[in-house]
Amino acid sequence: MCRLSVFATLFLMSCGLAVASSNLNVPTPEDRNVLQVCLAEAGMSFAGSVACIGKVFSACQANPENQTSLGMRICASRETELWDEKLNAAYQSAMDAQPEPVQEQLRATQRLWIEFRDHDCDVPMVIYEGGTLGPVAATQCLLQATALRALQMEDYARVP
C-alpha cells in the first residue's frame, strides 16, 4: 500500500517538481483536522463517511495558490495520503482480527485491488495523452479509490 505514495509522487514529479524535497504532498495538521471532524460527524454511517471524501481537497483548493493543475494534484495527493493511512491501519486491524484463511483471502484481495486501482487510475493519463488534465484526473482517481477502499476495509476490521 506504500505504492500509492510513490505513484502520487511520480505524478507530481512528472512536471518537474521535486516533491520529495519539498514535501508538498504531505498532509498538514489542518488537513488531518478537516478529515477527522468530518468522519467524527459521520459516525458509523458509511454514506456519511463517503461524504467526507474530497473535503480536504476542497479546503486545500480554497487557497488561490492551489487553483492550478499542479495545485489540484498536490491537494488531491495530500488527502490521498490521509486515506492511505486509514486504509493501512484498517487493513492491519482486519488482518489481526481474522483467522489465517480470512487473512489469506484479504491479503490476496488487497493485492488485486492495488493492481486494479493502479491500472484504473492510469486510464485518465491515456485519455488525456500528455495534457495537463490527465495527471489531475489520475490523482483524483487515486483519492477516490483509496478513500472508498479505506472505508470498506474499516468495515472488514469491525467484523468479529
Automatic annotation (TrEMBL):
Presence of the UniProt keyword Signal in the record:
yes
Keyword Disulfide bond present in the record's keywords: the answer is no
Q: Which Gene3D superfamilies match?
A: 1.20.1270.180
Q: Which UniProt keywords apply?
A: Signal
Per the UniProt record, one Pfam family is: LprI
Stretches of the chain forming a coiled coil according to its record:
none
Which interval of the chain is the signal sequence?
A: 1-20
Q: Please, which domain of life does this record's source organism belong to?
A: Bacteria
Q: Which residues form the Lysozyme inhibitor LprI-like N-terminal domain?
A: 60-152
InterPro entries cross-referenced by the UniProt entry? LprI-like_N
**Entries under PROSITE patterns matching the protein:** PROKAR_LIPOPROTEIN
The record's PANTHER family line, in alphabetical order, gives: PERIPLASMIC PROTEIN, PERIPLASMIC PROTEIN-RELATED
Record-given protein name = Lysozyme inhibitor LprI-like N-terminal domain-containing protein
Q: Organism source for this protein?
A: Pseudovibrio exalbescens
